[in-house]
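Appendix B. Extra example for self-study. Work through it before the problem class; the solution is given directly after the inputs so you can check yourself.
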Amino acid sequence: MNPQLVEITHGRTNPGIDPVLHAWGWEVPVYLFLGGLVAGVMVLLAALELKRRAKATTPAGQAMPFVAIGLISLGMGALFLDLAHKVHVYRFYLSFEATSPMSWGAWILMIVYPVLLLQGLGGLSDGARGWLRAKVGGLGTLLDRVQAFADAKRRPILWTSMAVGAGLGVYTGLLLGTLSARLLWNSAVMGPLFLASGVSTGAALLLCVKLDHEAHHTLVRWDTLAIGVELALLAVLLLGLVTGGSAQQVAADTLLGGRYTPYFWSLVVVGGLAVPLVLNVVEMRRGLRPTLLTPALVLIGGFALRTLVVAAGQYTSFGLMP
Amino acid sequence: MSKTSRRYAMVMDTKKCVGCNACVLACKAENNVPEGFCRDWIVEEVRGTFPKLQAEIRSERCNHCGDPPCVDACPTGASHIAEGGVVLVTHDKCTGCKACIASCPYDARFVHPEGYVDKCTFCLHRVQKGQLPACVTVCPTRSLHFGDLNDPDSDVSRLLATRKWKVQHPEAGTDPHVFFLV
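Solution. Structure tokens for the complete assembly:
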């Protein structure tokens, strides 16, 4: 019997749309990665201090909130580069659109800055405060007042940092998850998946800098937990796609036998999650000396996850359905 | 019937369309669509098992959905529902973030070279003057029809009441308002 023929000749050749949607290039995965990373750093630094009831003791640990401000600024820079109408960037802050995750994200980012600043200033040692006081010149009085506020409200600021960090991490996933036209993205799992990935990449970044032994040990445990949760959420995502209707099948095919399969399984699942998970467990059980290999793999895997999800999602449209 | 209760729609007769592209060219001329881009386009689809093949030619465009995901996704309110349910983009509010493009199941939007997102407007500027959209006026086989769905005597209401029709990707749940007679 002859096979069923389906031949479609399309007269539309709009740049960026045809033959495959390419609305978002490298800028958006970079932003999603850095946004998730900063979300993870916010959650972990706050949780670490709340758990231990003690501030970070090493200079690197104290500097991380300020490093996070730099990283989120880089991410926003990438997002700015992605805008096709850059002079209208201010429009994000002239309205709030409740149904648009991007609008939520724009406003969350405006909260991230002061929260990270307060978290960072309140966590500085006396020596670092003196150094900073000398650097700011005429703004010293203002710095003193902000620092006094950051000290007085330390615990509420830490709790706020955890909440805002979680919001930032979830939003980076929901930004994609609410766009139902892209079949791979259309899943509620995207929000928690990107948050878990943000926490594991945030932990990886913190494990790259010099922290005290106890903080390092706690972070390895939390990193392991986050990787485990991320693997479970990826399994839920794939199960949902495989057991879904024809739209979900199209999406599943990209990761299970389609064009993005080798990259997804090698860079994300095995290299970015499974191997670091095993290395973390071995490090904890055997008390081995930590190396930069595990954090590096997690960071590469986290970036690969965003890159692949953004690319594969744009590829999976209703037009691919039989 | 009051102006606000209108619901504009387009009906496209796939039995009459010959794929001449007159609608595409009329749209380009009327709306100054830049070279290399189009707001409407022709799709030719052949399905079946040889020798029992069936061909369909369609003139497609933005579906001006009743539940438009592009409007929900827009972070600045640039994408909005205007008079008669027509989905429009306010150029001055658009940042070119492309969330609306990613949200559209029909890939009906594109980034205009000037930076804002562009798409079919149902030629609302003409409709407000009592004229038909440019694509409808030039169709040599009269396969395109435009009108008010809330008016039972309109062309579009009568055609949809008497002919078999379909919409694109009903599974997307967007309540599209471009109908295809089959």
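Self-check: The radius of gyration of chain A is 22 Å. If your reasoning did not lead you there, revisit section 3.
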